[in-house]
Amino acid sequence: MAKEGADMTEETEYMIDKTVGKEAENVESSGNAKEMRAVILAGFGGLNKLRVTRKPMPEPQNGEVKIRVKACGLNFLDLMVRQGTIDNPPKPPLVPGFECSGIVESVGENTKGFEIGDRVMAFVNYNAWAEVVCTPVDFVYKMPDEMTFAEAAAFSLNFVAAYMMLFEVANLREGMSVLVHSAGGGVGQAVAQLCSTVPNVTVFGIASCFKHAAIRDSVTHLFDRNIDYIQEVKKISPEGVDILLDCLCGENTGKGLNLLKPLGTYILYGASNMVTGETKSFFSFAKSWWQVEKVNPIKLYEENKVIAGFSLLNLLFKQGRCSLVRSVMDKLLCLYDQKKIKPVVDSLWALEEVKEAMQRIHDRGNIGKLILDVEKSPTPLMASDSTETSEAGEEEEEPEGDNDSKERMPFIH
Question: I want to staple 95 with a disulfide (CB 3.0 to 4.6 A). Which of 41, 120, 127, 255 is the partner?
């Protein structure tokens, strides 16, 4: 009986979801302006935990800005959120996403500096992948007139993180050398551009071989991620490098520390090696943890090396350094106005295409940033991927060997 009850509940939920989907187009005409589309993560796990549905629209509280979202950024961190591999994630169901751009629709009480109609980009503590978000005014920034919404969604997290690691943590100066992993990604390309604003900085980039043609001009030296890059770097710079930016973790931590020059700085800002399959893998987590070289403070002291960690979202949402981040954003916008930096957008995806977009990041196929374009219509073959459910209430998995999605990826060239 319990099983029958569960089946009936799942069937009811399925019928409700189907009804909501059919009536979605009629919501505005019925006068209900208090609902919005949003990507929902129903539980931690694979791509089948993601779906697009309608939910109540938020209203700004004291000190908040309500934004009609035009574009959202998609980051590797979002994959880790989906799998549940980050520390202390909020309990699902939840709306993922940490950054967006759009137009100010209203402001809460005691909110100064923004007016209705302002074009803005913003950090959001989750909830960014929706048509409307509300976020504290401290996390909102005005966009330059010539910046597109897609560029703005690709700008904030990547460039602020890159700038703070290079200049606030590692104190990048003329004549120094930098090694960056995942050089073809959003942060990697931001690092390369910011390094070009300082004279005589040598940039060593590590990236998958198929990305080399597209990003070769952005770095000084480029190596395949599958070769022994330590030996290749030392052939060029026997002493090593001054700054090493690592988003991989695992065995690369020890390699990075060994590659540092005296007074060099190693910065860990991610742990993508923990993500291998579609769902959380205890084996991958344990392997990555085991491969991390145990840091001996005495050895750091003797070798004059610095090891650091950096999390922009923790700095903003847990440690209250909003004013510092705003000052960094001001500097970055000046560089943008001077045309010294420009975010690299890999591709645009509709909300309903979030699964395909997330798979592209998982496959490390992107060059630059993937963007969820809220106003974009989904490719017909993808339209039902994030909305249709099976009778058991779960997404139907695609059969193995299905490469159709690769043929219909809406790339920007």
Answer: 127
Q: Do 166 and 172 contact (CB within 8 A), yes or no?
A: yes
160 lies in the same domain as 273? yes
Q: Which position has the token pair 């010539």?
A: 146
**Shared-domain flag, residues 133 and 230:** no
For residue 363, CA distances in Å to 134, 206, 379 come to: 32, 16, 20
Does any domain span residue 337?
A: yes
Q: Which amino acid is at 2?
A: A
Q: Is the pTM higher than 0.70? A: yes
Q: Give 83-124 pLDDT, tens digit per residue.
A: 888 778 889 999 999 999 999 999 999 999 999 999 999 999
Q: Judge contact between 95 and 130, C-beta under 8 A.
A: yes
The domain total for the chain is 2
Residue 166 banded pLDDT, cuts 50, 70, 90: very high
How would you write the chain as a 3-class SS string? CHHHHHHHHHHHHHHHHHHHHHHHHHCCCCCCCCEEEEEEECCCCCHHHEEEEEEECCCCCCCEEEEEEEEEEECHHHHHHHHCCCCCCCCCCECCCCEEEEEEEEECCCCCCCCCCCEEEEECCCCCCECEEEEEHHHEEECCCCCCHHHHHHHHHHHHHHHHHHHHHCCCCCCCEEEECCCCEHHHHHHHHHHCCCCCCEEEEEECHHHHHHHHHHCCEEEECCCCHHHHHHHHCCCCEEEEEECCCCHHHHHHHHHEEEEEEEEECCCHHHCCCCCCCHHHHHHHHHHCCCCCHHHHHHHCCEEEECCHHHHHHCCCCHHHHHHHHHHHHHHHHCCCCCCCEEEEECHHHHHHHHHHHHCCCCCEEEEEECCCCCCHHHCCCCCCCCCCCCCCCCCCCCCHHHHCCCECC
CB 172 within 8 A of CB 189: no
Q: Which of 98, 118, 150 is the last residue of a domain?
A: 150
Whole-angstrom distance, CA of residue 88 vs CA of residue 310:
17
**Rounded average pLDDT over 329-353:** 97
Which of 343, 377, 404 lies at the terminal end of a domain, its last residue? 343
